[in-house]
Design brief:
Blueprint: E1 40-44, H1 46-49, H2 60-70, H3 76-91, E2 102-106
Antiparallel strand pairs: 1-2
Length: 109
């Protein structure tokens, strides 16, 4: 989230997830980005966007970005809490079929 321009950028993996294997000879490309004051990065697993409700509708990327945009001025912990609350409200009592892992990194100053 670029807080100065109130824009959300999305980077998605377009291949099958790589299994973590110490024997694997995977190669990774290193990149650097600069976070300005108020910018944040949200890293998450597919359990977040794939969380479904009783109507079999997934939470989806749009709900993630909408929720994050509404609370982007808050500290990282509040952003994460808001997304968790939105997912919980979306799924209601539907049993989870996948875990959700999420990390929010925000530059405060």
């Amino acid at each position: 989230m670029d807080s100065a321009h109130r824009t959300v950028g999305v980077c998605q993996r377009r291949t099958q997830p790589a299994a973590i294997d110490s024997r694997a000879e995977a190669q990774y490309k290193e990149n650097e980005i600069t976070l300005n004051k108020g910018d944040f990065i949200l890293l998450y697993t597919d359990g977040l966007t794939d969380a479904i409700n009783a109507q079999n509708e997934d939470f989806g990327l749009q709900r993630v970005t909408d929720t994050a945009s509404k609370v982007h001025t808050q500290p990282a912990a509040n952003i994460q809490s808001a997304i968790v609350a939105a997912v919980a409200a979306h799924v209601g009592g539907t049993e989870a079929f996948d875990d959700i892992t999420m990390v929010v990194v925000k530059r405060e100053s």
